[in-house]
Amino acid sequence: MTKMISILIALLLVSPVLAVSEPTFAELAVFCAKGYFKEYIPADASLDRCVIFLNEKGICISLFDLMDAEVKVTPEDFARVVGQSTLLFLGEAELAGGCIKKPQDAKSWVDYCLLNDVSLKNLWSRFILQVENGAFPEVDVFFGGGS
Description:
Elements: H1 2-14, H2 25-36, H3 47-57, H4 63-67, H5 75-90, E1 95-96, E2 99-100, H6 109-115, H7 120-132, H8 137-142
Antiparallel strand pairs: 1-2
């Protein structure tokens, strides 16, 4: 029993995927735009500018998900945005309905990232850490909570 409790505590301490924070699509948009595309997005860009930029490139952030505080980003959502960004950078992006579509050889966006050596766990961990540290003031400003 003690061994089982020790293992559970170790998992909670080691696995950032089990973090308490529930990231939003607004935070994901800023993380992606200012992280992956920092050469194209000014450091002081607003949330709406980040979302517009991403959607123009085919990295789709739904306005419904963005505006609903109850909708949280899942690791699968995160994999989609990372995968779409990767395809864009590789010059292999194909659009369907204005969004970069998942390649047919991958069953899911998580599979696509795994097949292409994208370190989802490390990226997710950094994203969650930034969410926990309140690193997205653009989101607060957009929703009227900041200056």
